[in-house]
């Protein structure tokens, strides 16, 4: 750790004071229900906060409890996810719910070790549930948190971070003020989202300016990145397989089942017969992720005729 105990205390006090002044009122910050926390965290992966709020509220109307989600047809779960993207997240969310119901009688385990063992839950989500539902002092990292900790402790992360994941997690654990796991982790997320942003950190009005290892270099580093440069973790969507996967799921949401031959032209404007192998690979990936199944009454891949696919039951 590059900071003294006194500096760590200053970082803690100032960041918590900043959060008290600047925190947005978000529905998942008003609950300690682990199911609701899980839903919000899965929705917030790769989706902006303001877009998530209406989906979160609608989702809880349709699936108000972990039991309701576990019992729902997967088709309904995928349909309810429409518009959020990364449809695999919906299937994984239901997988987690079913494991909580089947293995824990519908009562979420509270330790990181038990949470991370659930299907569909990784290091970040297990930490988020432990901290935000059970108010434990747990260090975990999403993109915003990782960026803030890196800049405070190790210096500029532009154009690429210099510290390893292990080093950043250790630093996050050392910065965490004992007994304040909930508010501290919320503050880190919020600070990264609003103040210490990826490309244009608001260093001029930053309360942590004099205790930040990245200041003042971070501003010149940010300014030196050419317009249009894609930074690490900034994926492209247009023309990607993810875009075509999304279109295929959307097509199935509005119909019971579709023959494979009809899908190509629907999802790809310039679809040609030579794209058949690509399409089959795309569908195979969706099958592996539990997002589509072959219709039982239609021909299979190896039979004569046109295979028919649908959303799972």
In short:
With 313 residues, the protein is mainly α.
Question: Could you explain the architecture of this structure?
Answer:
- It contains 15 helices and three strands.
- It has helices at residues 5-22, 34-44, 49-62, 66-71, 74-80, 88-104, 112-116, 123-132, 143-154, 165-175, 181-194, 217-223, 241-253, 260-267, 276-288; strands at residues 258-259, 293-294, 308-310.
- Helix 1 crosses helix 11 (181-194) and helix 2 (34-44) packs across helix 8 (123-132).
- The longest helix is centred in the N-terminal third of the chain and has 18 residues, at 5-22.
- The protein is globular.
- The chain starts with a helix and ends with a strand.
- The model has no long low-confidence stretch (mean pLDDT 91).
Please supply descriptive tags for the structure shown above.
313 residues, mainly alpha
Globular, elongated, flat, extended or rod-shaped: what is the shape?
globular
Unreliable sequence segments = none
**Overall strand count:** 3
Order of helical and strand elements: HHHHHHHHHHHHHEHHEE
Number of separate helices = 15
> What's the helical proportion of residues?
40-55%
Strand order of the largest sheet: 1-3-2
Radius of gyration, Cα only, in angstroms? 22 Å
Oligomer: single chain
Portion in beta strands: under 5%
Please describe the biggest sheet, giving its number of strands, its sense, and whether it closes into a barrel. Answer: 3 strands, antiparallel
Cα end-to-end separation? 51 Å
In terms of structural class, how would the helical and strand content be classed?
mainly alpha
**Kindly state the mean pLDDT as a whole number?**
91
């Amino acid at each position: 750790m590059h900071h003294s105990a006194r500096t760590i205390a200053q970082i803690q006090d100032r960041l918590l004071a900043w959060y008290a002044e600047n925190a947005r009122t978000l529905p998942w910050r008003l609950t300690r229900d682990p199911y609701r926390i899980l839903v919000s965290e899965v929705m917030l992966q790769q989706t902006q906060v303001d877009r998530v709020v209406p989906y979160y509220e609608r989702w809880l109307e349709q699936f108000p409890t972990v039991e309701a989600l576990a019992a729902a047809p997967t088709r309904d779960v995928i349909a309810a996810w429409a518009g959020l993207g990364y449809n695999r997240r919906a299937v994984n969310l239901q997988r987690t719910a079913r494991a909580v119901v089947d293995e824990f009688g519908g009562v979420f385990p509270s330790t990181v070790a038990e949470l991370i063992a659930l299907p569909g839950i990784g290091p970040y989500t297990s930490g988020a549930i432990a901290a935000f539902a059970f108010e434990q002092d747990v260090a975990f990292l999403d993109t915003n948190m990782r960026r803030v900790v890196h800049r405070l402790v190790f210096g500029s992360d532009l154009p690429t971070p210099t510290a390893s994941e292990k080093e950043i997690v250790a630093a996050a654990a050392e910065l965490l003020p004992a007994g304040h796991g909930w508010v501290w982790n919320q503050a880190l997320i919020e600070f990264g989202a609003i103040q210490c942003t990826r490309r244009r950190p608001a260093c001029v009005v930053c309360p942590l300016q004099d205790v930040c290892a990245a200041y003042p270099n971070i501003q010149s580093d940010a300014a030196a990145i050419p317009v249009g440069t894609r930074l690490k973790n900034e994926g492209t969507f247009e023309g990607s397989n993810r875009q075509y996967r999304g279109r295929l799921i959307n097509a199935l949401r509005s119909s019971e089942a579709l023959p494979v031959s009809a899908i190509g032209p629907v999802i790809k404007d310039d679809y040609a017969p030579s794209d058949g192998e690509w399409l089959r690979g795309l569908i195979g990936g969706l099958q592996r992720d539990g997002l589509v199944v072959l219709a039982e009454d239609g021909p299979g891949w190896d039979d004569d005729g046109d295979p028919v696919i649908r959303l799972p039951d």
